[in-house]
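Our preliminary data section would be incomplete without showing what the modeling component actually yields. Below, a chain of 159 amino acids is followed by its predicted structure, encoded as tokens that our downstream tools consume directly.
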Amino acid sequence: MELGEDMKIEIVEVKGKMDYSSILDLINAEWPKEFGEATDLEKIGEMENSSNELDINKFLLKDNKRIGWYRYSRWPREEINHDFAHTFDIVVLPEYKGQGFGKLLMNDMIDDCREKGFKNLKSRTFMNNEDSIRLHQKCGFKEAFKVNDSIVWEINLNE
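Predicted structure:
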């Protein structure tokens, strides 16, 4: 996708094991205060521990610079059933927020899930994350339920 004459925007998938140290700026932009204070090494460790070879990782590039990222996987991962997918991460660097890049990433994730045959995509947002709540609403997610400090969203991918 091209936006303007000087700006090239693209979304690319990265296959294989992620090097989370290379995207620390994105991890820091996403890290919720509910997870507590953590060093960069602790954050990288948490990301590595939560990742899996089944995860799909895609980056939003603007003029070849990574400005956004999402990660999702089938859910639960242990199930062979591929009906459900779950978001793990979706983030845009702070200086690029409010420009439609989050919606672009979320819609790409939804399309990718549909192409892979998933029937439903679930996502979780902390209740105080107003940007994420608006993004989920704009992209057609419906509130499934609330638990503790979070909203669990879902979107039917067959519609």
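The longest helix spans residues 101-115. The mean pLDDT is 91. Preliminary results of this kind motivate Aim 1 of the renewal.
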